[in-house]
Design brief:
With 58 residues, the protein is mostly helical. The chain has one domain (5-54). It contains three helices and no strands. The chain has helices at residues 5-21, 23-29, 36-54. α1 crosses α2.
Length: 58
Amino acid sequence: MKGTDHFKRTIQMFLEQRAAEDELFAKSYRNPAKNIDDCVTYLVAIVFCFMRVTSFCL
């Protein structure tokens, strides 16, 4: 499961803004073991799980 480049940039911009405003989040966000691809994969997986569990279909 991969997100589009536009989706990745949008999520990354949101996270950068959040890190600029929240010192505690910024510390976690700067963890070198984290990356945008894994973040997007996680988000997409959570959405698919939610859809499957709730039988929500578009």
